[in-house]
């Protein structure tokens, strides 16, 4: 097996080892043993234990995220697409957390120690939101705004429904209503100024 | 001292002990020793170690929250009051976290183990938001809506700026801009429907 060893095989084995032994105990030697290769063979693909753990985490985040990227591509108005994107993200995270809580807990530890990987992942998600916002602004559906800042605000405002810190809430009663209420608030917020601005004389209460 | 021992004195001493020894090690005997009384004197006020820790946590949350309750009472339109309430909450939490990180870490542990106290505290905060929303709806400033659900949505949407899970972000660059962006999104979201609804023929994009 050693001469055809791929990075993908190593990452798959590393995930199994991390789940079985826990992130605190799993070593590169354990991964090599599981594959029946020397630890040198693993190090040829990943120069350090930290690099291997980062690669495992990146792969997990990318995979969890694949259906979300697809969700941005559905046809229809930007508000429909954004709502679909947000609910797909929530569903993907919720399934990960509830279907395999042990693996989810393992990755929660890894995510906590690989902040660079997570920052990259979040930037990628925020960029997808920004893409939908730009389409919505171009279509006159969303208000013109600082797109990158607003995209991050959408991500922040929906954090209870994608940040693993809240995973204990995701099976609770009322969570779907809570999600819908936040989505509605956010989508109204994106549209609001657009509907105000062109209507001279509309009653808008402003602090004076 | 024992014959004039008050609950308040015990709670003050318990906070000191928790900070000094850490939540994992602090005991009722430590608290009694710090006060120069028997542990029986402490138990006359608080029937168990858990009850004492809950009372300490409740006191801390209530105190952190006092300026926030005041913020709901400022004069002006509901949107100004809500923004002021949210920024006062963020400031209060941020000061707690940054001014005395050791005590904040201690309380983060306590908050994690006293879920009933925290749920009560959150319900109280959400009720204050709901009060501002009702005033705004009565004044025609905010859209009519399910007030309790929407108040919770406002609380959830601003979680990055009050949930201790995010305290590591609160000293980062850009956090104030991020806060303003979420506030603007939320306040636009509250006003949006009100401006749409009475205007027949206004262009509202809905999924069909």
Tags for this model:
homodimer; 208 residues; mainly alpha; Arc Repressor Mutant, subunit A; Tetracycline Repressor, domain 2; 9 helices; 70% helix; disordered C terminus; DNA-binding (chains A, B); HTH-type_TetR-like_transc_reg (chains A, B); transcription regulation (chains A, B); DNA-binding transcription factor activity (chains A, B)
Overall description:
The structure is a homodimer of 208-residue chains. The first copy, chain A, is mainly α and 208 residues long. Chain A folds into 2 domains: 2-47, Orthogonal Bundle (Arc Repressor Mutant, subunit A), CATH 1.10.10; 54-196, Tetracycline Repressor, domain 2. Chain A is 70% helix and 0% strand. Chain A contains 9 helices and no strands. The first copy, chain A, has helices at residues 7-21, 28-35, 39-45, 49-71, 78-99, 101-113, 115-138, 147-157, 175-196. The longest helix of chain A has 24 residues, at 115-138. The interface between A and B is large, with 46 and 44 residues.
């Amino acid at each position: 097996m050693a001469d055809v060893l791929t990075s993908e095989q190593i990452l798959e084995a590393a995930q199994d080892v991390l789940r079985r032994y826990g992130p605190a105990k799993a070593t590169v030697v354990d991964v090599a043993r599981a594959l029946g290769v020397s630890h040198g063979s693993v190090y040829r693909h990943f120069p350090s234990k930290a690099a291997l753990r980062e690669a495992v985490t990146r792969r997990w985040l990318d995979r969890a995220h694949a259906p979300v990227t697809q969700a941005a591509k559905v046809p229809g108005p930007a508000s429909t697409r954004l709502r679909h994107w947000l609910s797909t993200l929530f569903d993907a995270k919720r399934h990960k957390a509830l279907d395999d809580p042990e693996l989810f807990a393992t990755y929660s530890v890894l995510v906590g120690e690989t902040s660079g990987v997570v920052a990259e992942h979040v930037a990628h998600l925020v960029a997808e939101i920004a893409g939908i916002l730009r389409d919505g602004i171009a279509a006159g559906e969303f208000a013109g705004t600082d797109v990158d800042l607003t995209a991050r605000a959408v991500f922040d405002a929906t954090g209870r429904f994608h940040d693993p810190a809240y995973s204990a809430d995701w099976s609770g009663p009322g969570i779907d209503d809570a999600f819908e209420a936040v989505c509605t608030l956010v989508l109204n917020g994106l549209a609001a100024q657009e509907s105000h601005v062109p209507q001279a004389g509309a009653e808008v209460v402003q602090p004076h």
